[in-house]
Amino acid sequence: MAETLTNQSSSALTLYSTTVSDVGYVRSNNQDSSFAGRHLAAICDGMGGHAGGDTASTIAIRSLAHIEHDDTVDDIETVATMMESSVLAAHDAIVGKAKHERSLSGMGTTVTAVSLVQNHWILAHIGDSRAYLLRGGRLIRVTKDHSYVQHLIDTGRITETEAKNHPQRNVVMRVLGDFDIDPRPDISIRVAMPGDRWLLCSDGLCGVLEDSTLQEVLSTITDPEDCAQKLVAMALKAGSTDNVTAVIADATVPLDTSQNAHTPVPLAGGAVSSSLENLADIIDEPVATAPALEADEGSPAQRAAALAQKEHSEPDDVAAPRVAQPSSQREQGVDEELTMPTTGEIPVVQKKDGNLTADPHDPEVARAIKTQQREQVVKARKHHTRKRVSIITIIVVVLVALAGCGFGAWRWSQSQYYLGEANGSVAIYQGVPTNLFGLSLSHPVAQTDITIDSLPNNWREQLSNTTYSSYDAAENHAAVIRQQVEDLKLAQKTPSGQKFGGQEQSASPSASATPSSTPSATASAKASGAANQ
User: CATH second-level architecture of 14-255+264-293?
Assistant: First the structure.
């Protein structure tokens, strides 16, 4: 544990906090989440795409919210350990959710949270959100940014002024989430003093406002809500391009501890405000949405940006503040199914006394987490099995389709015939003159008495070029070739000048040596007629 001061106030202090969060003029959604209660104040700045950042920051607030319980163990060391383990539990929940939903891969969040226990402040911090403490009119920056530019400042490579405009000023070196980074938060404990005022803020605020400006506003505006409103509005006017969130937490001495009816309702701001019912179930008391940033006309550029943002937002985006009751107080409809509220990956357990808890140290919560993890393993295995069965089914269907196509092609090939060579003679083949994957698609079905040697070379080359749709057609063509071979032999034996059918036939070697390249029935008929003269 870090710094612990020795002075202790004699009066029991209470925490009064409020928060204001605004999406800003540039971003399309608010990825900051904040909580302002009577025992806990926290700011989480999410990152990781359109859906990832708000999911991560929401999980972190939910994981910490159980510390708000009125019946929290009133021991400083115990609560400090609870805060550290809750931050680590949030880290595990974010990583687990990112693994189950690929669209959330790479999401993460900062965490800066403070709790008041036995007149001691317990602070948990990781990331580049900041915690400032105003004490006795002096502003103290309590946290150190876990960022790359802070590392450069610490090593003397750049100054504080240069860091504000550094191109890598948004690079964090420690953060919760789907990264290979140490997720353990810095934990510090210090004595609380009456009049202490905390400012917890995202880098959308402290990145554009000087510490001197923060000190002036925190010192001069006594009302916490007015102070938060002023700081957020000033950050936007100063040109902040990020979501802007401020949490103001004051240590006060209660005037009348018996008037519980007037205790303020815890507030949720930013992304987590869409999960009010879950928060109400975790802390088992009502939770309200944080007040919206008060309208400010600002500069013409700001008015144009605000107008453009309204045009692109849904009608339900600007909702009136609302209060969510815990499930123990909510009216349950007859047909409404009772469901266990969720904190992302950390289950909420209803104990025998009726209270709800999400404390990871609670044995029942620990058992519920293990049960949930086993169910997730079983679900993942079933999903893997279904995926494997689907892949096998697709492969089988493809193979059956290919087999069907192959069989259809083979059936068609066996209805075709062509002439080819077999054992030195012309044969009639059934099929087509090709092969598929080394398998021949034809076989001889009849042998003719036409020898291959009796055919001219060009006839041999073109013998199998023609396929026929029936055996009879192939047989008829074989008969034509047989007749033309006989006519060719007769023409070669006839002396030059001998007349056939009243015509002089030339039987010169050159003529006889160049027969028709394609035997035809017409040529066969002419040769047959000449022989009969």
Answer: 4-Layer Sandwich (3.60)
Neighbours of 20 (CB within 10 A): 29
Higher pLDDT, 360 or 249: 249
More confident residue, 530 or 382: 382
CA dist 60 to 15, 109, 326, Å?
A: 21, 8, 20
C-alpha span between 89 and 170 (Å, rounded): 25
The predicted-structure confidence for 409-422, as pLDDT tens digits, reads as follows 777 878 888 888 88
The pTM of this model reads 0.62
pLDDT per position as a tens digit, 131-162: 999 999 999 999 999 999 999 998 999 888 88
Rounded CA gap, 428 and 443, in Å? 9
Closest C-alpha among 380, 306, 375, 387 to residue 347: 375
Distance CA 521, CA 480 (A): 6
Whole-angstrom distance, CA of residue 342 vs CA of residue 201: 26
- 516 alpha-carbon distance from chain centroid: 72
CA distance 493 to 512: 10
Q: Residue 155 pairs with which residues in a beta bridge?
A: none
pLDDT of 525 > 50? The answer is no
Measuring CA to CA, how many Å separate 499 from each of 58, 490, 494, 522, 524?
110, 13, 9, 20, 18
Residue-wise DSSP of 180-247: SS--PPEEEEEE--TT-EEEEE-HHHHTTS-HHHHHHHHHH--SHHHHHHHHHHHHHHTT--S-EEEE
C-alpha span between 345 and 74 (Å, rounded)? 27
CA dist 314 and 122 (Å) reads: 40
Contact between 323 and 352 under an 8 Å Cβ cutoff? The reply is no
Among 11-15, 255-259, 516-520, the least confident range:
516-520
Least confident of 124-133, 196-205, 246-255, 363-372: 363-372
Q: Report d(CA 437, CA 439) in Å as an integer.
A: 6
At 444, which amino acid appears?
A: P
CA torsion angle for 456, 461, 462, 467 (degrees, to 10)?
130
Which residues lie below 8 Å from residue 456, measured CB to CB, with a gap of 6+?
488, 515
Six-digit token pair at 444?
A: 């001889």
Q: Treating both helix axes as pointing N-terminal to C-terminal, what angle do 49-64 and 76-100 enclose, rounded to 10 degrees?
A: 150
Query: 245: pLDDT confidence band, cut at 50, 70 and 90?
Result: very high
Spans of all domains in the chain: 14-255+264-293, 417-490
Q: Find the angle CA(108)-CA(112)-CA(113) to the nearest 5 degrees.
A: 125
- What does the alpha-carbon distance between residue 455 and residue 383 come to, in Å, rounded to a whole number? 69
Kind of pairing, strands 287-289 and 267-270?
A: parallel
Around Cβ 138, how many Cβ atoms within 10 Å?
Answer: 9
How many degrees, rounded to 5, is the angle at CA 515 between CA 487 and CA 476?
55
